[in-house]
Amino acid sequence: MRTILKIIAAPFVLALILIVAVLTFLSCVAGAVCIVACVGLSLLAILCLLAGQTVGCIAMFVLAFLVSPFGLPALGGWLVERLHSVKYAAMDFMAS
């Protein structure tokens, strides 16, 4: 019975390996883009503050935090790490 489950799980493990590789690459690229966007949004927030637009300034700082390495890229990295864990668990199941 266990051998049948391993045969059924093999395509899913292969798909999971490919998905994790692609998402890891995209996470690295998105992180680099987000750093540039964070700097731009921070500069816009400072300009809004100097212009007296406090609501716009706060909104820009919130957006800058979300695209900073502590915001959405950190969440994406955490999700990719969870997928890595699932991938290794599935590969251990296949090897046992």
From TrEMBL:
Any Pfam family matching the protein: DUF5699
Matches recorded under InterPro entries: DUF5699
Name of the protein in its database record: Succinate dehydrogenase
Organism of origin: Blautia wexlerae
